[in-house]
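Input (structure):
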């Protein structure tokens, strides 16, 4: 299990404009952030690490939802611990974000 220091992690930032009643990142100006090759850990190890840091409390370990939804009072942290994922974050008409094992998406 390894967690890379911030100085060694490439970060991609992306603003997602609001769409209909979904504010996306535009409401507060905080971008979607992808931390590439941030860790090498199992889901249990990543969950324990996030609990130890204390800024994010893991609520569930599961795959991505297939339906459009957003969180009005919180942000979401996704850790890709196996395989890869491609999802439309924000709106289905905006190009998706692809991520691979060891990436964290906030």
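Output (sequence):
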């Amino acid at each position: 299990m390894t967690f890379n220091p911030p100085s060694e992690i490439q970060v991609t930032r992306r603003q997602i404009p609001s769409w209909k009643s979904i504010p996306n990142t535009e409401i507060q100006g905080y971008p979607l952030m992808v931390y590439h090759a941030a860790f090498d850990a199992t889901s249990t190890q990543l969950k324990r690490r996030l609990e130890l840091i204390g800024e994010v409390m893991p609520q569930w370990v599961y795959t991505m939802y297939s339906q459009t939804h957003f969180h009005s009072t919180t942000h979401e942290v996704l850790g890709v611990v196996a395989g890869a994922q491609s999802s439309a974050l924000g709106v289905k008409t905006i190009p998706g974000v692809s991520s691979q094992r060891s990436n964290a998406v906030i």
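Notes: The radius of gyration is 14 Å. Strands lie at 2-3, 10-14, 32-36, 39-40, 78-79, 84-87, 97-100, 104-105.
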